[in-house]
Amino acid sequence: MTSGTVDGLHYEMHGGPVAGRTAVILSSGLGGSGAFWAPQMAALTAKYPVVLYDHRGTGRSVRELTQPHSVQAMADDIVKVMDALGLARAHVVGHAAGGNAGLAMALSHPDRLAKLVVVNGWSRPDPHIQRCFDTRIHLLNDSGVQAYVHAQPIFLYPASWLSENNDRLQAEEPHHVASFPPRDVVLARIQALLAFNIDDRLGEILHPVLVSASADDMLVPVGCSMRLAEGLPNGQLEVAPWGGHGFTVTDPETFNAALLGFLEGDE
User: Fold this and answer.
1) How far is residue 220's CA from residue 193's CA, in Å, rounded to a whole number?
2) CATH class of the domain defined by 2-264
3) How far apart (Å, rounded) are the C-alpha atoms in residues 261 and 265?
4) Each residue of 226-238: pLDDT tens digit?
């Protein structure tokens, strides 16, 4: 593994060069930490060079955001990491915010993108997503970081998985509180996501795109993924029956199989 920093963004390259294989960049959701992708790393690094990075404002990256902040700024950060690593093109796999950033990158830097995987993403604002984010904003503003972090799993995971993994989640909570970004950073990132709307430009994205979703996602309705896949000229939809918004964590075997099948297709 090699690591570095570019324009304040912490990144890591895992797996080394794999002959004939394009590197895979993993872009996380609102939490922003590359560590989110731990359940995918063994499967991916066996076949691909894999790049992890922490979103601007989160993790080990600089805590200041570009101003004004936007999903396009998140897409530009992916390109900055690619430039630092000398990658002319890469596959991008993004979860929610990271997937939306991949869509923005497909429009603004089409020559830098090979294949795109959008996990529980969307192409336009949705009333249910707005309601969920409004609730998270109120938690953060009115009750503080501890309450926000404690509530996070409700939005991410199915109830049965929450019950079975309560000890693990309780043990992780102090770490998440200690590493929580500044409040204004989280709020700005949420507002950037709520403002994201490329619904009328989906036809311009000609890359192969896997739209991956979970049927029981309670944060991003599966209909958002269906609409996204329908609007993409080369989009294909995979819907897992269970797993919640974070089904890459709760059911990694199902997700990893679909992910590798898509990346390896036509190689």
Assistant:
1) 12
2) alpha beta
3) 6
4) 999 999 999 999 9
